Amino acid sequence: MKKLATSVRILVIPLVIVFYIAILFHNLSESDRRSLLMKYESEAADKVHVSLRVVSVDVARSEIIARMQIGLAGKIAKDAFTPDVNLRFLVNAVSGQQRFEFPRGERVTPVEVIFALNGEQNWYPFDAYQATLAFLATKPGQPAKPPPAAPAPAKSKSFIERLTQGGDKEADAKPASPDKLVGKSELASYTPVPISFDLSASIPGMKFNGEVAKDDRDQVTRIQLKLRRADNVIVTSLGIQLMMLILALSMLAMVLYGTIQGKESALASLSISATLIFGLPALRDTQPGVPPLGAFSDYVSYLWAETIVAVSAIIAIWTWIHRHRAKDPEPISDSALPSETPGKSPGS
């Protein structure tokens, strides 16, 4: 039996080393698995090229920040960064400038744009988010009108179709969606310019996915981004939550089977409980990108762990009080003292 135990101890050490090295090699390419690289090339000769780089994601403020560099090609450009016509560039920013004017002959400078981020932070670490990045470039001049399409047979539209597609008075009366960059009156005096783009997004802790949603009706180029927590963040968060629960349950077991049964001093479990009461909040905050207190994961692990540790401390305190009351000698009553005979001195 001793040889088996010794062999197990010897095997544990190389297994831990192999596991440690495997995790290191697995995370060498972690950034490639969570990053996003997208490219879209327009076939037009005269076009605007947009280079986007996502630099920050703030889920608390529901914002995604990107740096944007605009390049030019074809007859609309004097060179790669200087327009030969007056260009107007529109973007669905939620903060700051939404319309950029690039006069003819002036160099185009990089800009920083803030987009809206939609999602529910309460589901950390399984929270997911979406963002729509919409762009439209125009130049002066009336666009060519497309040939009229054949009238389609009239049919009744559902409520969802009326909201998404429009076509009736009720839908037209509603305000435009956030990525509705331009109205019909502005397109009447400006010609849309084709857009190509490349996008890069790589932020530790977030995993990106995306697709292009090109709509030829309004000439707006849209990028649909989908974000979620990276795999290593999810694993780390779940590990910390499991650790908090195991610590709390171990503390409760120590109190029940040690202190109450009289096998250990109550002060030992009391000191550990008091330490965990203040240590668990710090352990919770080590989760990467954890939201403020109140997320769903707190009701799964942290709040229960804190409650269990507090109950363990209370049990340890009252056990200590009960033991010391039992050890205190009972006070001697006056009836138990020897009575003195009247008229005699105590020494007689």
Word description of this protein:
β9 and β10 form a beta hairpin. The protein is elongated. The relative contact order is 0.12. It is built from 8 helices and 14 strands. By secondary structure, it is of the alpha+beta class. It folds into 2 domains: 184 residues, no CATH class; 95 residues.
Low-confidence runs of at least 5 consecutive residues? 158-178
Instruction: Tell me the helix content.
Output: 25-40%
The helix count comes to: 8
Helix-strand pattern, N to C? HHEEEEEEEEEEHHHEEEEHHH
Question: Which structural class should the secondary elements be placed in?
Answer: alpha+beta
Radius of gyration: 35 Å
Give the DSSP E fraction (strand runs of 2 or more residues).
25-35%
What does the average pLDDT come to?
Answer: 81
Shape: elongated
The main β sheet shows up as: 7 strands, antiparallel
Q: What is the first-to-last residue Cα distance?
A: 77 Å
Number of domains: 2
Count of DSSP strands: 14
Quaternary organisation of the protein chains: single chain
